[in-house]
Amino acid sequence: MPRSILVASAAVFAALPALAQDRPVLTVYTYSSFTSEWGPGPAIETAFEEVCGCDLEFVSVDDGVAMLSRLRLEGDRTRADVVLGLDMNLVAEAKATGLLAPHELNLPPFDLPVEWTDDTFVPYDWGYFAFVYDTEALAEPPASLKELVEESDVEILIQDPRTSTPGLGLLLWMRSVYGDEAAEAWTRLRPRIVTVSNGWSESYGLFVEGEAPMVLSYTTSPAYHAIAENETRYQAAEFAEGHYLQIEVAARVAGSDEEELARSFLSFITTDAFQSVIPTTNWMYPVIRPEGGLPDAFQNLVRPERGLLFSAEEAERNRGAWIDEWLRAMSR
Predict the structure, then answer these.
(1) Deepest of 17, 210, 273, 321, by most Cβ within 10 A of its Cβ?
(2) Is 272 exposed, middle or buried (0-12, 13-18, 19+ CB in 10 A)?
(3) Are 308 and 243 in contact (CB under 8 A)?
(4) Alpha carbons 37 and 248: distance in angstroms, whole number
């Protein structure tokens, strides 16, 4: 091969790293199950990078509560351009940090059980918390939260409300049903709580391994087993009082060096390329119905007649006191 060609080839390959480095990097903080190989992260990364001319980098933590704690700890020094995975119980607290910026987008109508008008957060999926049970270990699950607490002897797995959005959801669910008697309800339930995990993935993994017949999860969790495993043994128990609603959201970080790219990502959330991935990777309801509709397995899920939800402001105002109440009850 002529020396001139060798020199030219070397110059091209030497330039490749520089070209790669010239691509802007969008850093998105999210939770670990979102970025796992079976979660929506890999598909969304590929789809967004095809249109953004950038590198999308996910940074994962255990859960949404842990993500907010990290964002608050890092403050203005954070690497994050976008946070994805907070929910309605955290948005008021997150907004109060002053670390998030308005999305400044004209958003489409959302398929949500509540009206959405927030100027900072863009919703990307939603669902109801539920206790999922193993039908081979538990023939008749409790029919209400009060039956689970007061009459049942079923052992359960839950998540910590200090680090987990489902754990916080259960805390608020108990408060919605029991009000000021929630502390007593926790005390009654505590002997049958096998494990309090930091995040959802850990406790759900223990559940499918048979550590307990019920686990705090979502009404949509059985769809995963039906679609991915062709398995129907895991079902969600429907509770008479209603189920607590979760809406997961994303927001851009104020002071990001990639302001336009962050805004583009928030807009991308509302496209079919993002929304169509959610049902069979994050196993939640999308906020905009995919062009191809929902999988058949979603038609057989528990659809609560009543959704429970504190306002974002009330959740923020009481979260600390209610967690302290939970800690005291769990330590008795």
Answers:
(1) 273
(2) middle
(3) yes
(4) 20
Angle at 264 between CA 261 and CA 267, to 5 degrees: 155
Task: For the chain, 332 residues long, give each residue's pLDDT as a single digit of tens.
Answer: 444 444 444 444 444 444 445 899 999 999 999 999 999 999 999 999 999 999 999 999 888 888 999 999 999 999 999 999 999 999 999 999 999 999 999 999 999 999 999 999 999 999 999 999 999 999 999 999 999 999 999 999 999 999 899 999 999 999 999 999 999 999 999 999 999 999 898 999 999 999 999 999 999 999 999 999 999 999 999 999 999 999 999 999 998 999 999 999 999 999 999 999 999 999 999 999 999 999 999 999 999 999 999 999 999 999 999 999 999 999 97
Number of residues assigned to the chain: 332
In sequence order, the β-bridge partners of residue 218 are: 129
Residue type, 37: E
Whether residue 219 contacts residue 297, with contact meaning beta carbons closer than 8 Å, is answered with no
CB burial of 33-54 (b: ≥16 within 10 Å; e: otherwise) equals bbbeeebbbbbbbebbeeebeb
The answer to whether residues 52 and 26 touch, using CB atoms and an 8 Å cutoff, is yes
Helix locations, 193-311, DSSP H: 200-208, 221-228, 259-269, 272-275
Radius of gyration of the chain (CA): 22
